[in-house]
Write a structure and sequence with these properties.
By secondary structure, the chain is an alpha+beta fold. It has one domain. The chain is about 30% helix and about 35% strand. The protein contains 4 helices and 5 strands; from the N terminus they run ββββαααβα. Strands 4-3-5 form a 3-stranded antiparallel beta sheet. Strands 1-2 form a two-stranded antiparallel sheet. Helix 1 (about 70-85) crosses helix 3 (about 95-110). The longest helix is centred in the middle third of the chain and has 15 residues, at about 70-85.
Length: about 150
């Protein structure tokens, strides 16, 4: 298996060689105010889901291999976060008001952005959707009072 290495935010990251069809990843956003051991057990009998911070959003995206941004969607979430701290109207424009409200609460209390992690990468679209759905089902959505996630779909 071939591997390649690059830096992301100053940290070295090593990846297996990937083809164009396996450029999807699943990511999780965490609330830095809620530290602890958040254990959601096994997913699909393969992934142990234990986090040191409370998750508040699970998403999927693709790598932008044509540009310089490694995890483009994470950067977009960070931009949303910094916009929400200076512009309360972002809630009116957002498709996910629950997530943006959470981002505004995080900033108002601790003045730092959310934490994030790439849960799985090197996936095709179908695989990433399956992992995302499994994580959301296991962790639970806040809108149904099943868990902490702000996902609406």
């Amino acid at each position: 298996m071939s591997i390649w290495m690059e830096e992301f935010d100053g940290w070295p990251v090593i990846y297996p060689f990937r083809d164009n069809h396996k450029n999807h990843y699943v990511y999780i956003l965490f609330d830095p105010r809620e530290k602890g051991k958040f254990d959601y057990g096994l997913i699909k009998g393969m992934y142990e889901v234990v986090f040191p911070y409370l998750p508040f959003y699970v998403g999927i995206s693709t790598e932008d291999r044509s540009g310089d941004i490694k995890y483009k969607r994470i950067t977009e979430h960070q931009n949303e976060f910094y916009s929400s701290k200076s512009n309360q109207n972002i809630l009116n424009e957002s498709s996910n008001k629950i997530k943006h409200k959470k981002m505004m609460e995080i900033f108002s209390e601790c003045q730092i952005p959310f934490y994030w992690v790439i849960f799985r990468d090197c996936l095709n679209k179908e695989e990433s959707q399956q992992v995302e759905r499994a994580l959301i089902r296991r962790i639970g959505k806040s809108m149904y009072e099943e868990g902490p996630l702000t996902n609406i779909r």
